[in-house]
Design brief:
The chain is of the alpha/beta class. The chain is built from 6 helices and 21 strands. The protein folds into 2 domains: 179 residues, FAD/NAD(P)-binding domain (3-Layer(bba) Sandwich), CATH 3.50.50.60; 121 residues, FAD/NAD(P)-binding domain, CATH 3.50.50.60. Helix 4 packs parallel to helix 5. The mean pLDDT is 94.
Protein backbone atom coordinates (compact mmCIF):
# COMPACT_ATOMS: atom_id res chain seq x y z
CA UNK A 1 0.00 0.00 0.00
CA UNK A 2 1.35 3.40 -0.97
CA UNK A 3 1.38 6.00 1.78
CA UNK A 4 0.42 9.45 0.51
CA UNK A 5 1.72 12.21 2.73
CA UNK A 6 -0.19 15.47 2.48
CA UNK A 7 1.97 18.52 3.17
CA UNK A 8 0.25 20.94 5.55
CA UNK A 9 -0.44 24.13 3.56
CA UNK A 10 1.88 26.99 4.48
CA UNK A 11 1.80 30.73 3.80
CA UNK A 12 3.89 30.03 0.70
CA UNK A 13 1.05 27.94 -0.77
CA UNK A 14 -1.36 30.88 -0.78
CA UNK A 15 -1.86 31.99 -4.39
CA UNK A 16 -0.53 35.49 -5.16
CA UNK A 17 -3.26 36.27 -7.70
CA UNK A 18 -6.53 37.15 -5.99
CA UNK A 19 -10.00 38.33 -6.87
CA UNK A 20 -10.13 40.15 -3.55
CA UNK A 21 -7.77 40.90 -0.68
CA UNK A 22 -9.17 42.05 2.66
CA UNK A 23 -6.77 43.92 4.90
CA UNK A 24 -7.64 43.48 8.59
CA UNK A 25 -9.41 40.79 10.61
CA UNK A 26 -11.69 42.69 13.00
CA UNK A 27 -15.51 42.49 12.69
CA UNK A 28 -15.42 44.50 9.42
CA UNK A 29 -12.75 42.38 7.73
CA UNK A 30 -14.20 39.05 8.86
CA UNK A 31 -17.76 39.93 7.87
CA UNK A 32 -16.48 41.11 4.48
CA UNK A 33 -14.70 37.75 4.20
CA UNK A 34 -17.88 35.79 4.97
CA UNK A 35 -19.81 37.62 2.24
CA UNK A 36 -16.95 37.56 -0.28
CA UNK A 37 -16.43 33.84 0.29
CA UNK A 38 -20.13 33.12 -0.23
CA UNK A 39 -19.94 35.18 -3.45
CA UNK A 40 -17.22 32.76 -4.67
CA UNK A 41 -14.50 35.44 -4.62
CA UNK A 42 -12.10 33.18 -2.65
CA UNK A 43 -10.97 36.01 -0.38
CA UNK A 44 -7.61 36.32 1.27
CA UNK A 45 -7.65 38.06 4.64
CA UNK A 46 -4.32 39.56 5.65
CA UNK A 47 -5.03 39.50 9.35
CA UNK A 48 -2.41 41.89 10.67
CA UNK A 49 -0.42 41.69 13.85
CA UNK A 50 -3.55 41.89 15.99
CA UNK A 51 -5.79 39.22 14.48
CA UNK A 52 -9.37 39.73 15.62
CA UNK A 53 -8.92 43.47 16.14
CA UNK A 54 -10.03 45.62 19.05
CA UNK A 55 -12.51 43.15 20.56
CA UNK A 56 -9.59 40.88 21.43
CA UNK A 57 -8.75 43.37 24.18
CA UNK A 58 -12.11 43.27 25.90
CA UNK A 59 -13.89 40.81 28.11
CA UNK A 60 -17.66 41.08 27.99
CA UNK A 61 -19.58 42.24 24.91
CA UNK A 62 -23.25 42.76 25.78
CA UNK A 63 -24.53 44.55 22.67
CA UNK A 64 -23.72 42.23 19.77
CA UNK A 65 -27.06 40.77 18.62
CA UNK A 66 -27.56 37.04 18.93
CA UNK A 67 -25.98 36.56 22.34
CA UNK A 68 -28.64 36.81 25.05
CA UNK A 69 -25.91 36.43 27.65
CA UNK A 70 -22.65 38.35 27.28
CA UNK A 71 -20.11 37.00 24.82
CA UNK A 72 -16.38 37.39 25.38
CA UNK A 73 -14.71 39.54 22.73
CA UNK A 74 -12.05 36.94 21.78
CA UNK A 75 -14.71 34.19 21.59
CA UNK A 76 -16.87 36.30 19.27
CA UNK A 77 -13.93 36.99 16.99
CA UNK A 78 -12.84 33.37 16.99
CA UNK A 79 -16.35 32.26 15.93
CA UNK A 80 -16.42 34.85 13.12
CA UNK A 81 -13.06 33.63 11.89
CA UNK A 82 -14.08 29.96 11.95
CA UNK A 83 -17.21 30.89 9.98
CA UNK A 84 -15.16 32.79 7.36
CA UNK A 85 -12.67 29.93 7.15
CA UNK A 86 -15.37 27.28 6.76
CA UNK A 87 -16.79 29.23 3.82
CA UNK A 88 -13.40 29.23 2.08
CA UNK A 89 -11.49 32.30 3.25
CA UNK A 90 -7.71 32.00 3.41
CA UNK A 91 -5.82 33.81 6.16
CA UNK A 92 -2.31 35.18 6.32
CA UNK A 93 -0.97 36.25 9.71
CA UNK A 94 1.11 39.09 8.38
CA UNK A 95 0.99 42.86 8.27
CA UNK A 96 0.50 44.76 5.05
CA UNK A 97 3.59 46.96 4.69
CA UNK A 98 2.83 48.69 1.40
CA UNK A 99 0.25 48.94 -1.38
CA UNK A 100 0.31 50.17 -4.94
CA UNK A 101 -3.09 51.35 -6.11
CA UNK A 102 -1.69 53.02 -9.25
CA UNK A 103 -1.38 49.72 -11.03
CA UNK A 104 -4.07 47.14 -11.87
CA UNK A 105 -4.42 44.52 -10.56
CA UNK A 106 -3.56 46.35 -7.34
CA UNK A 107 -0.44 45.33 -5.49
CA UNK A 108 -0.56 44.46 -1.77
CA UNK A 109 2.74 43.73 -0.05
CA UNK A 110 3.59 42.20 3.30
CA UNK A 111 7.20 41.87 4.44
CA UNK A 112 7.26 38.33 3.03
CA UNK A 113 4.75 38.12 0.19
CA UNK A 114 3.13 40.16 -2.54
CA UNK A 115 -0.38 39.80 -3.93
CA UNK A 116 -2.13 41.03 -7.06
CA UNK A 117 -5.74 41.87 -6.26
CA UNK A 118 -8.60 42.82 -8.56
CA UNK A 119 -10.36 44.43 -5.58
CA UNK A 120 -9.25 45.37 -2.08
CA UNK A 121 -11.24 45.98 1.10
CA UNK A 122 -9.43 48.05 3.70
CA UNK A 123 -10.63 47.15 7.21
CA UNK A 124 -7.65 48.15 9.32
CA UNK A 125 -9.72 49.72 12.10
CA UNK A 126 -8.71 52.32 14.63
CA UNK A 127 -7.08 52.30 18.03
CA UNK A 128 -8.38 54.24 21.01
CA UNK A 129 -5.71 56.59 22.38
CA UNK A 130 -4.58 55.32 25.74
CA UNK A 131 -3.24 57.09 28.80
CA UNK A 132 -0.15 54.85 28.47
CA UNK A 133 -0.06 54.20 32.22
CA UNK A 134 1.00 51.03 33.95
CA UNK A 135 -2.01 48.82 34.81
CA UNK A 136 -4.19 50.49 32.18
CA UNK A 137 -3.98 47.68 29.62
CA UNK A 138 -4.30 45.00 32.31
CA UNK A 139 -7.49 46.58 33.66
CA UNK A 140 -9.06 47.20 30.22
CA UNK A 141 -12.44 45.46 30.41
CA UNK A 142 -12.03 45.26 34.18
CA UNK A 143 -13.16 48.77 34.97
CA UNK A 144 -11.12 50.64 32.35
CA UNK A 145 -13.09 51.36 29.18
CA UNK A 146 -12.81 53.32 25.94
CA UNK A 147 -16.48 53.25 24.94
CA UNK A 148 -19.49 54.22 27.08
CA UNK A 149 -21.97 52.80 24.56
CA UNK A 150 -20.20 49.45 25.00
CA UNK A 151 -19.57 49.43 28.74
CA UNK A 152 -21.72 51.96 30.65
CA UNK A 153 -24.22 49.32 31.87
CA UNK A 154 -21.30 47.59 33.62
CA UNK A 155 -20.86 50.75 35.73
CA UNK A 156 -24.32 50.74 37.28
CA UNK A 157 -24.44 52.58 40.62
CA UNK A 158 -20.68 53.02 40.86
CA UNK A 159 -18.63 56.21 40.80
CA UNK A 160 -16.93 56.64 37.45
CA UNK A 161 -14.65 59.13 35.73
CA UNK A 162 -14.30 60.26 32.13
CA UNK A 163 -10.93 61.54 30.92
CA UNK A 164 -11.03 64.13 28.13
CA UNK A 165 -12.88 67.29 27.15
CA UNK A 166 -13.82 66.95 23.48
CA UNK A 167 -17.30 66.22 22.11
CA UNK A 168 -16.68 62.49 22.55
CA UNK A 169 -15.78 62.85 26.23
CA UNK A 170 -18.93 64.88 26.93
CA UNK A 171 -21.10 62.43 24.99
CA UNK A 172 -19.52 59.55 26.92
CA UNK A 173 -20.14 61.33 30.25
CA UNK A 174 -23.78 62.07 29.39
CA UNK A 175 -24.37 58.42 28.47
CA UNK A 176 -22.46 57.08 31.46
CA UNK A 177 -24.43 59.21 33.90
CA UNK A 178 -27.57 57.17 33.07
CA UNK A 179 -25.91 54.29 34.92
CA UNK A 180 -23.17 55.54 37.23
CA UNK A 181 -24.02 57.09 40.59
CA UNK A 182 -21.60 59.94 39.88
CA UNK A 183 -19.35 60.91 36.97
CA UNK A 184 -16.20 62.99 37.34
CA UNK A 185 -15.11 64.61 34.11
CA UNK A 186 -11.37 65.11 34.39
CA UNK A 187 -9.57 67.49 32.05
CA UNK A 188 -5.92 68.52 31.97
CA UNK A 189 -6.68 72.07 30.75
CA UNK A 190 -8.66 74.94 32.21
CA UNK A 191 -12.43 75.37 31.91
CA UNK A 192 -11.93 77.95 29.12
CA UNK A 193 -9.98 75.50 26.98
CA UNK A 194 -12.71 72.86 26.75
CA UNK A 195 -13.24 72.03 23.07
CA UNK A 196 -16.63 70.29 23.26
CA UNK A 197 -19.56 72.08 21.64
CA UNK A 198 -21.53 74.43 23.85
CA UNK A 199 -24.78 72.49 23.81
CA UNK A 200 -23.04 69.36 25.12
CA UNK A 201 -21.24 71.45 27.71
CA UNK A 202 -24.50 73.04 28.88
CA UNK A 203 -26.23 69.67 29.21
CA UNK A 204 -23.33 68.30 31.25
CA UNK A 205 -23.07 71.42 33.41
CA UNK A 206 -26.77 71.16 34.27
CA UNK A 207 -26.47 67.52 35.36
CA UNK A 208 -26.02 67.37 39.13
CA UNK A 209 -24.39 63.94 38.86
CA UNK A 210 -21.50 65.25 36.72
CA UNK A 211 -18.61 66.92 38.51
CA UNK A 212 -15.87 68.79 36.62
CA UNK A 213 -12.24 68.53 37.64
CA UNK A 214 -9.96 70.87 35.64
CA UNK A 215 -6.16 71.24 35.32
CA UNK A 216 -5.71 67.64 36.36
CA UNK A 217 -3.95 64.63 34.86
CA UNK A 218 -4.13 60.95 35.75
CA UNK A 219 -0.76 59.66 37.01
CA UNK A 220 -1.68 56.13 38.06
CA UNK A 221 -4.41 53.56 37.45
CA UNK A 222 -5.01 51.68 40.70
CA UNK A 223 -6.04 48.05 41.13
CA UNK A 224 -4.78 44.57 40.34
CA UNK A 225 -7.72 42.33 39.38
CA UNK A 226 -10.20 45.19 38.92
CA UNK A 227 -10.02 48.96 38.78
CA UNK A 228 -10.06 50.46 42.27
CA UNK A 229 -9.40 54.09 41.41
CA UNK A 230 -6.90 56.53 39.97
CA UNK A 231 -4.18 58.80 41.25
CA UNK A 232 -4.36 62.32 39.83
CA UNK A 233 -2.14 65.39 39.89
CA UNK A 234 -3.52 68.91 40.00
CA UNK A 235 -1.21 70.82 37.65
CA UNK A 236 -1.80 74.16 39.43
CA UNK A 237 -1.36 73.12 43.06
CA UNK A 238 0.93 70.15 42.24
CA UNK A 239 -1.16 68.21 44.74
CA UNK A 240 -1.43 64.48 44.03
CA UNK A 241 -4.37 62.50 45.40
CA UNK A 242 -6.36 59.33 44.89
CA UNK A 243 -9.95 59.04 43.62
CA UNK A 244 -11.68 55.70 44.30
CA UNK A 245 -13.59 54.59 41.18
CA UNK A 246 -15.59 51.65 39.86
CA UNK A 247 -15.23 52.76 36.23
CA UNK A 248 -12.77 54.79 34.18
CA UNK A 249 -13.65 55.90 30.68
CA UNK A 250 -10.74 57.14 28.60
CA UNK A 251 -12.13 59.43 25.87
CA UNK A 252 -9.08 61.20 24.49
CA UNK A 253 -9.52 60.21 20.86
CA UNK A 254 -8.88 57.45 18.33
CA UNK A 255 -6.13 56.82 15.80
CA UNK A 256 -7.35 55.35 12.51
CA UNK A 257 -4.89 52.77 11.21
CA UNK A 258 -4.30 54.45 7.87
CA UNK A 259 -0.63 55.52 7.90
CA UNK A 260 -0.02 52.94 5.18
CA UNK A 261 -2.48 54.62 2.82
CA UNK A 262 -1.40 58.25 3.31
CA UNK A 263 -1.12 60.02 -0.05
CA UNK A 264 -2.58 56.97 -1.81
CA UNK A 265 -6.24 57.35 -1.01
CA UNK A 266 -8.53 60.22 0.00
CA UNK A 267 -8.97 60.70 3.72
CA UNK A 268 -10.42 63.17 6.18
CA UNK A 269 -8.64 63.60 9.51
CA UNK A 270 -6.89 60.29 8.85
CA UNK A 271 -10.16 58.39 8.22
CA UNK A 272 -10.74 56.90 4.77
CA UNK A 273 -13.48 58.59 2.77
CA UNK A 274 -16.28 56.75 1.00
CA UNK A 275 -17.01 58.19 -2.43
CA UNK A 276 -19.74 55.92 -3.74
CA UNK A 277 -21.39 53.43 -1.37
CA UNK A 278 -18.36 51.83 0.39
CA UNK A 279 -15.96 52.55 -2.49
CA UNK A 280 -13.13 55.00 -1.99
CA UNK A 281 -11.93 57.56 -4.54
CA UNK A 282 -10.08 54.70 -6.25
CA UNK A 283 -12.44 52.38 -8.16
CA UNK A 284 -11.94 48.84 -6.90
CA UNK A 285 -10.70 49.89 -3.44
CA UNK A 286 -13.33 49.66 -0.71
CA UNK A 287 -13.18 50.45 3.00
CA UNK A 288 -15.21 49.35 6.01
CA UNK A 289 -15.43 49.70 9.76
CA UNK A 290 -13.63 51.97 12.20
CA UNK A 291 -11.10 52.95 9.53
CA UNK A 292 -13.92 55.01 7.97
CA UNK A 293 -16.32 55.52 10.84
CA UNK A 294 -15.52 58.13 13.47
CA UNK A 295 -19.09 58.31 14.71
CA UNK A 296 -20.51 54.92 15.72
CA UNK A 297 -17.40 52.78 16.37
CA UNK A 298 -19.29 49.60 17.19
CA UNK A 299 -18.63 45.98 16.34
CA UNK A 300 -22.07 45.64 14.75
CA UNK A 301 -21.67 48.75 12.57
CA UNK A 302 -18.18 47.61 11.51
CA UNK A 303 -19.58 44.17 10.66
CA UNK A 304 -22.48 45.76 8.75
CA UNK A 305 -20.12 47.88 6.71
CA UNK A 306 -17.91 44.85 6.04
CA UNK A 307 -20.97 43.17 4.54
CA UNK A 308 -21.72 46.25 2.40
CA UNK A 309 -18.12 46.48 1.17
CA UNK A 310 -18.08 42.83 0.10
CA UNK A 311 -21.38 43.19 -1.77
CA UNK A 312 -20.14 46.42 -3.41
CA UNK A 313 -16.84 44.77 -4.38
CA UNK A 314 -18.65 41.81 -5.88
CA UNK A 315 -20.92 44.07 -7.96
CA UNK A 316 -17.99 46.22 -9.07
CA UNK A 317 -16.00 43.15 -10.12
CA UNK A 318 -18.98 41.96 -12.13
CA UNK A 319 -19.35 45.26 -13.97
CA UNK A 320 -17.55 48.47 -12.94
CA UNK A 321 -19.68 50.47 -15.38
CA UNK A 322 -22.82 49.78 -13.36
CA UNK A 323 -21.27 51.25 -10.25
C1 LIG B 1 -11.60 47.76 24.84
C2 LIG B 1 -12.69 47.85 23.79
C3 LIG B 1 -13.95 47.36 24.05
C4 LIG B 1 -14.95 47.43 23.09
N1 LIG B 1 -16.17 46.91 23.39
C5 LIG B 1 -17.14 46.93 22.45
C6 LIG B 1 -18.42 46.37 22.72
O1 LIG B 1 -18.68 45.89 23.82
N2 LIG B 1 -19.35 46.42 21.74
C7 LIG B 1 -19.10 46.97 20.50
O2 LIG B 1 -19.97 46.96 19.64
N3 LIG B 1 -17.91 47.53 20.23
C8 LIG B 1 -16.92 47.52 21.17
N4 LIG B 1 -15.71 48.10 20.90
C9 LIG B 1 -15.51 48.73 19.59
C10 LIG B 1 -15.25 47.66 18.53
O3 LIG B 1 -14.23 46.80 19.00
C11 LIG B 1 -14.84 48.29 17.22
O4 LIG B 1 -15.84 49.18 16.79
C12 LIG B 1 -14.64 47.21 16.14
O5 LIG B 1 -13.70 46.26 16.56
C13 LIG B 1 -14.18 47.83 14.83
O6 LIG B 1 -13.98 46.79 13.93
P1 LIG B 1 -13.03 46.93 12.67
O7 LIG B 1 -13.04 45.61 12.00
O8 LIG B 1 -13.39 48.12 11.89
O9 LIG B 1 -11.57 47.23 13.25
P2 LIG B 1 -10.66 46.55 14.35
O10 LIG B 1 -11.42 45.72 15.29
O11 LIG B 1 -9.85 47.67 14.88
O12 LIG B 1 -9.71 45.57 13.50
C14 LIG B 1 -8.72 46.08 12.66
C15 LIG B 1 -7.89 44.94 12.12
O13 LIG B 1 -6.98 45.45 11.15
C16 LIG B 1 -5.72 44.86 11.32
N5 LIG B 1 -4.69 45.72 10.74
C17 LIG B 1 -4.35 46.99 11.07
N6 LIG B 1 -3.31 47.42 10.30
C18 LIG B 1 -3.02 46.39 9.46
C19 LIG B 1 -2.05 46.18 8.44
N7 LIG B 1 -1.16 47.13 8.09
N8 LIG B 1 -2.02 44.99 7.80
C20 LIG B 1 -2.92 44.01 8.11
N9 LIG B 1 -3.86 44.15 9.06
C21 LIG B 1 -3.90 45.32 9.74
C22 LIG B 1 -5.60 44.65 12.83
O14 LIG B 1 -4.64 43.65 13.10
C23 LIG B 1 -7.03 44.20 13.14
O15 LIG B 1 -7.16 42.83 12.91
C24 LIG B 1 -14.68 48.04 21.84
C25 LIG B 1 -13.41 48.55 21.57
C26 LIG B 1 -12.42 48.46 22.52
C27 LIG B 1 -11.04 49.01 22.23
Amino acid sequence: MQLILHKKPTDEDISPNREIVIIGSGPAGLTAAIYAARAQLHPLVIAGLEPGGQLMTTTEVENFPGFPEVVHGPDLMSEMRIQAQRLGTEFLEQNVMDVNFDQYPFLVLTDQRQFNAKAVIIATGAEPKRLELENEAKLSGRGVSYCATCDAPFFKDVEAAVIGAGDAAFEEALFLVKYASKVKLIYRGSKEKIRANKSLQNRALKDPKIEFIYNTIVTEVLGQERLLGIKVLNLESQKEYEIPLGGLLVAIGHIPQTQLFKGKIEMINGYILHKRYTMTNIPGIFAAGDVVDFRYRQAITAAGQGCQAAIDAEKWLQDPKLF
